[in-house]
Structures are given as C-alpha cells and as structure tokens.
Design a protein that fits this description.
The complex is a heterodimer of chains A (249) and B (415). By secondary structure, chain A is an alpha/beta fold. In chain A, 40% of the residues lie in helices and 28% in strands. Chain A contains 10 helices and 12 strands. In chain A, strand 11 and strand 12 form a beta hairpin. The longest helix of chain B is centred in the first third of the chain and has 17 residues. The chains are: A alpha/beta (249), B alpha/beta (415). Chains A and B meet through helix 2, strand 7 and helix 3 of A and helix 5 and helix 6 of B. The structure holds adenosine-5'-triphosphate and magnesium ion. The site of magnesium ion (MG) has 4 residues of chain A, from helix 1.
Chain lengths: 249, 415
C-alpha cells in the first residue's frame, strides 16, 4: 500500500527526515512513536504534500503511484488522509459545506456522482452520531471555537466521511477523553479491512490497547531506529526512549 | 493644479455653459455648483480627501453627451424578482420600468429636485449638480413597508465615451421601510457620476445594497448623502467589482438619538483596477451606533483604498462606533491604502477601528487541499470566508444570492 524509501526532507534548510524507510502493507495498522521533534508530524506532512517541506531524497509509492509527484488534492483523491496534530480553524467556512465540498471533490475525481445537500447531510449526521458528536458541530465553522478534543473528533469525522485507503493519524488521541479515545479507536477499527491501512502516530500505549497495531516503529532524528510488534510499544511505555534511541545512535 | 485635470474641468464647465439654458430646474443651484467646481476643479491627489485616487484618466477622456434616444432595447441582465426602475445612460426609462406599489417615483427630468443634504465641497457631487439631467426620486409614505426595488443603471452602447450624472433621491417618511438594490452595468468607456440623497425619518429603515459591475473601461463615481433621524436605520452594502476607477463615497449623518448606520462593503479588484471606498459617518445625536466592515480582495496590480472618518459631536454621548477595513492581497503587486480617522468631541463614547492586510493563509489552503479540494476551489472557499463577515448582515435573500453569484463570476473570470 505504502512504501517509503530512504526519504529525506527539510524545512527552511533544516534536515528533518534523514533516510526514512517504511513498508505498510494493505490491511495493516502501524504505529509510529518517537520523542518530540523526531520528525513524526513532518512525515505526515510530507506524505500529504505540504509545500513547506522540501523533499531532498528518496521516494514514496502509494499503491502503484509515485506519491511525491502528486498535488495534495490528488493524494487525497487517491485515498490518502492526514488527521492533523493541530487541525486548522477555518472562520467563515461552514463545517458541513466544507465536508461536502471535500467529499464531492473526491467523488468527482473518481468519476462518481456528487452528493446533494440532503444526501450528504444524511450521511454526515449518521457518521457524527456514530462518533457521538453533537449535530451542531456540522453547522458551525470548521474547528472555530471547538475544544481540543472536538477538533480531533472532527478530524475523525472527516476520515469517516471521506473513507480513505490510507489514514495517517497524527496524535489524534492527544486531548481526547477516555470515552472519546475509545470512540476514535472504534472509528478506525470500523474502517479496518484488506483495503485500508493506517499509520498511527502516538505517544501513548492507551490508544494502542484499543487499536492494536501490526507493527510499531520508533522514529528518532528523522529515521526509523527500531521496529517491532505491539509489545515494543509496551516496552517503550515502561522504559522510555532512552535505551532505544541510544542503541541506534 | 495638474494641467490635464484643469483641462478636464474646463471641458465640463464649457459643457455646462452650452447646456445651461436647457437644463431643468433651479439655475441658481447649478450656478453655485459650477462656481465651486470651477474653483476646485476635478479633485487632485493633493486634495486630502483624494490622496489615494487619481482622476487623471477620467480628465483625459473626452466624454460626450449620451444620445437622446435609446437605440436598442438593452439587455437587462440578471436581477431579482422585484419591481425595477431602469436607467439607460443615466436617463430614466419608464417603458422598461415596473414601479412598485408603495413607492412614489418621480423622474428628476420632470421635477428636478437637488435635495437638501449634498455638500458643495465634494467636487464630483458639484459636477453632478451642475450637469444632472435625470434620475429618480423615490418617496415612501409614513408607516408603509414598500418591499424591494431594483434600480438598474445601464450603459449598453459602448461605442463612444459618454458621461452621465444621474441624480437620485430616496425619502422614507416615519416608520417606512424600503430595500433598494442598485445595479450598475455597462460597456466601453463612460463616466457614471451619480449622487444619491437618502432621508430616513424617525423609525424608518432603508436598506441600500449596491452591485457595481460596470464595464472594465468605465469610471464610476458615486456620492451618497444619508441622513438618519431618531431610531432610523440606514443599512448600506456596496460590492465593487467593475470599472477602471471607482469611488464610492458615503456621507451618513445621525441626527436623532438611537439611530443606526451600517456601511459594509467589499471590493474585488483585478488587473489595473482602482477601487476607493470613502465614508464619513457623523454622529450628531446621542445613543447612536455605526458599524462599518469593509473587505478588499485585490489581485494582479489592482489597488484598493478605504478612507473612513467617524465624527462624534459633543452632544453625541453613548455613541457606539466600529470600523474595520481588511485586505486580502492575492498578488505581490496589489496594494491597499487605508486611512481611518476618528474625530471625537464627546467623552462617553465607544469607538474602535482597525485594519488588517494579509494573504491567503498557506496552512488553511493546505488543509483544504489535503481533504481533496482542488487548489482553485480551495482559494475560492477562503476568499468567500474572508468576505463572510461583511456579507453576513445582508438579510435579504434575493440580494444576497445576487451578490454571491456576482462574486462567483468575478472569481471565475478574473483577469
Ligand atoms: N516551520 C519550521 N521551521 C523550522 N523548524 C521546524 C518547522 N517545522 C518543524 N520544525 C522542526 O522539525 C523538527 C521535527 O518536527 P515534527 O513536528 O515533525 O516533530 P514531531 O516528531 O511530530 O514532534 P511532536 O512529538 O512534538 O509532535 C522539530 O525540531 C521542529 O522544531
Ligand atoms: Mg508532531
């Protein structure tokens, strides 16, 4: 599904990713952990096509496509979804209109018919309900005045509606209360299947209790320094990064 | 004074001398205006009120009189489902108009009335007073809700440069209500130099929404004088899309307590367009409010100007004044000039003003695109979001829809 090869990227002359390689087969969920500033969000942005990051080396294939050659919207249309660590506020943009515009843009790119307002609202309300989100979050401006946890839930709502093939969840669990954590994990689990993969960036074992990963990778200074099964996350929770990162250095 | 401005002014004065005997109405009023115009001439950028807007292009164009007859039936274009009054080349066309019940319409040519508010110190208004030939005078009797009226100004010919100076009046008696939706369109080079006087008596509500979609070679100068009595409301919105050079100047005066003035507007400019919104809100009575939210979306080499003055007289205690001018620069060559002025002589008032200049937010744009929204559509969404604050108070659904469609078209066909 996703194959990252020796990826290097920088922002404003600062090297952040330095030869990162990662294979995420279809149907799997991988977790990415690592100290603050190690480059986890950068990986998410580079995969999604943020123009602020300059790719200086390596390659990324998504399905059969050269991901790095695509515009951000084309990546989304191809099935990539990034849940932002810090979702943006869009004053003056209605959340339901935003979601419908996004969904219809993706449907258009696939040659599918667009959903009208009524059809869309039916879908959006059903998904919002499953995520235990109040209806009025659809009526409000995108993320404006949302609490930290509500913003994260809104990301998951977008994911549920856009139904990506590959979701990159950047600390979507941070700021969520215990119930919301479970709901979000259930939301991802509901998408799980042979056609869906996820890259789950997290600092906490707790999410991984609900969302059991196939593999866990540790990112340090822009590289994967260790990979293992779900037990690696528990080991990190118990011992911290010191041992792992030092081993790699 | 600049020579081309002087020559331009002299040409208008010569035209006045030629027409003087045939122009309708009180010659003394016109002569006084001509004297003032002769002294000041066409405004120059050395005049404090015209610091950012040059009328040289206007002065250098040899505008002719409009032909007296309309040659072909003009295309009225899109409008909303409401009674309408149509002017072609500044002349009222009864045959194309469907005056509404509840509004008495008097053509200026039949009963020339210059109003009582216009200030001879505005040179373009003086030019209008000197040369006005037609226009419409609207009157709504006390307590009547006259609904919505479309005032359509067309300059459909486009073959020779013409100048017209329509003179309008809107008079709402106590408790009356009216929405005027003014649309200006045209082709070719022309000067549309209108003056409107609005008198809002106590408790009356005048909603005045304007879509300025003149042709790209046009000059559009529009001066409005509004007077609002006790508990009256003058609620204005102007959308500037067209013209090579446009100046919308609004003087609003609150003369009775608890009156309200809204002057919102948006200018969406491209190419080398120049758009100027100038407002003067005079609080002459206590407990009144005024709110102004102006948004500028500037692409290419366009230039936006906002000058806003709030004057609070000593008696105008408890005034609540607000003014905000924001610009979104879509190109590194676009430019905004902003001149807020507060003149406050009362001590118990709340008055604030602000200005911001920015570009489209790259992070917001990326967020939208990462959701699959194509770049152009994402930009359009953010521009609309930027305008929302100024547009949202427009409660009239037909007018709101018309303006939104005009904005959408502008966005799709912008240079
Ligand atoms: N715009 C920027 N300019 C300069 N440095 C940046 C910029 N954006 C990110 N960085 C730096 O890049 C490094 C990696 O940042 P990144 O956000 O990818 O870390 P992270 O692993 O997601 O951290 P966290 O766990 O705190 O979210 C950090 O040192 C950060 O300061
Ligand atoms: Mg991060």
């Amino acid at each position: 599904m996703l194959s990252v090869n020796n990826l290097a990227a920088r922002i404003e002359e600062k090297e952040i990713l330095r030869g990162l390689s990662l294979d995420l087969p279809a149907g799997q969920v991988h977790a990415i952990m690592g100290p603050n500033g190690s480059g986890k969000s950068t990986l998410g942005y580079v995969l999604a096509g943020h123009e602020g990051y300059e790719v200086t080396g390596g390659s990324v294939t998504f399905g059969d496509a050269d991901l790095l050659a695509m515009e951000p919207e084309a990546r989304a249309a191809a099935g990539l979804f990034l849940a932002f660590q810090a979702p943006l506020e869009l004053p003056g943009v209605n959340n339901a209109n935003f979601l419908r515009t996004a969904l219809n843009a993706i449907r258009r790119a696939h040659g599918e018919a667009e959903l009208d307002a009524v059809g869309f609202l039916r879908l959006a309300r059903a998904e919002a309900k499953r995520l235990a989100m109040p209806d009025d979050m659809l009526k409000r401006n995108v993320n404006v005045g949302f609490s930290g946890g509500e913003k994260k839930r809104n990301e998951v709502l977008q994911m549920a509606i856009l139904r990506p093939k590959l979701a990159v969840l950047d600390e979507t669990d941070s700021g969520l209360d215990i119930d919301a954590l479970r709901i979000v994990a259930d939301g991802v689990n509901a998408l799980r299947g042979p056609e869906f993969s996820a890259l789950v960036i997290t600092h906490h074992q707790r999410l991984l209790d609900h969302l059991v990963p196939d593999r866990v990778h540790v990112l340090s200074k822009g590289r994967i320094v260790r990979s293992g099964g779900p037990e690696l996350a528990r080991e990190l929770e118990a011992n911290g990064y010191a041992g792992v990162v030092a081993d790699a250095a | 004074m600049n020579q081309s401005l002087r020559n331009g002014a002299d040409a208008y004065l010569a035209r006045y001398q030629g027409l003087r005997g045939r122009l309708p109405g009180d010659a003394a009023i016109r002569d006084a205006a001509a004297a003032a115009f002769s002294e000041g001439g066409l405004p120059s950028m050395r005049d404090e009120d015209w610091r950012y807007t040059s009328l040289r292009g206007l002065a250098e164009t040899d505008f002719q009189e409009p032909l007296s007859a309309v040659s072909t039936a003009p295309i009225l274009g899109e409008a909303i489902d409401a009674p309408r009054l149509v002017l072609v080349d500044g002349r009222y066309q009864p045959g194309l108009s469907t005056p509404p019940a509840g509004v008495t319409v008097t053509p200026f040519s039949e009963n020339p009335y210059f109003g009582r508010l216009p200030d001879i110190k505005c040179p373009m208004a003086a030019l209008n007073t000197m040369l006005a030939e037609d226009g419409v005078q609207l009157h709504v009797a006390a307590g009547v809700d006259a609904g919505t009226l479309v005032l359509l100004s067309l300059a459909p010919d486009g073959h020779r440069p013409i100048a017209f100076h329509p003179r309008h009046g809107i008079h709402l008696e106590a408790g009356a209500k009216l929405t005027v939706l003014e649309i200006s369109r045209g082709q070719g080079a022309y000067l549309h130099n209108a003056v409107t006087e609005a008198v809002v008596a106590s408790g009356a509500v005048l909603t005045h929404i304007r879509l300025q979609a003149e042709g790209p070679e046009a000059f559009h100068v529009n001066t409005t004088f509004a007077e609002v009595a006790e508990r009256g409301t003058y609620d204005a919105f102007v959308l500037t899309l067209g013209a090579r050079v446009a100046r919308t100047e609004i003087h609003a005066r609150l003369i009775g307590p608890h009156g309200m003035v809204h002057l919102n507007g948006a200018q969406l400019l491209g190419g080398q367009q120049h758009g100027d919104i100038t407002t003067v809100v005079a609080h002459d009575a206590p407990n009144c409010g005024s709110r102004q939210t102006i948004k500028n979306v500037l692409s290419d080499r366009s230039r936006g100007v906002f000058q806003g003055r709030i004057e609070v007289a000593r008696v105008a205690q408890k005034t609540d004044g607000y003014q905000m001018n924001q610009a979104l620069l879509l190109s590194p060559h676009a430019e905004i000039d902003c001149k807020p002025q507060l003149e406050i002589y009362a001590d118990d008032v709340k008055c604030s003003h602000g200005a911001t200049v920015g570009e489209l937010d790259a992070e917001q744009l990326f967020y939208l695109r990462s959701r699959g929204v194509p770049d152009a559509e994402a930009r359009a969404i953010l521009v609309r979001a930027f305008l929302a604050e100024a547009m949202d108070p427009i409660a009239h659904p037909g007018a709101r829809g018309l303006l939104e469609r005009a904005i959408e078209q502008w966005w799709e066909h912008r240079p």
